[in-house]
């Protein structure tokens, strides 16, 4: 904005918040990063509030828009659920049957304290199989963790496996410079599954103000924010085998 010019962008964040966010996005090895998330859990929600992190709200709103009523009975799996930010948004929109999975015990502890989940499981995605029965969930969300050094795009088939035919998947990723290579890989994987008839794309919503940038380099054209995308897919019902 005009106030103080672009030099101030994103840098209005407290240094400690910036450091904590940068630490988990840095290319550290997985065990180290999970330890950082464990340590971050207690302060996580106030930090992302400072970041103006909008993904949970945007994802829940998009999923609700696509999702047929009624919602109270629908089973949802919140993958990489963290402290329960997505669950809170879903709950506000009438979803009541929520299960969560995360790789950080510290985050799960916070999620448990919200009282929003019927079930919570510890699972490091990409290294352990997703602990979910096949074709069980009406919707599966993976918000915020599809990124460089976080959850690999190879988990997509597992998310699909856990989703009922006709069920919905809500995924998000960031479009900041350091995540572009990952995003390209993710979109290639998403497209491949679509071409194979596994699911149909209902929405790919580009969002300019995803969250505040923690560095000048990551900021979109000097806005002080990074951008992101919300994707909604619908798992295809079993196809009829007419065409031989």
From TrEMBL:
Domain annotation Methyltransferase type: ranges: 77-170
- State the superkingdom: Eukaryota
Cite the Pfam families for this sequence: Methyltransf_11 (PF08241)
CDD domains named among the record's database cross-references: AdoMet_MTases
**GO molecular function, one example?**
S-adenosylmethionine-dependent methyltransferase activity
Task: Identify the InterPro entries for this entry.
Answer: Methyltransf_11, SAM-dependent_MTases_sf
Q: From the UniProt annotation, give the residues forming the signal peptide.
A: none
Q: Know the name of this protein?
A: MET27 protein
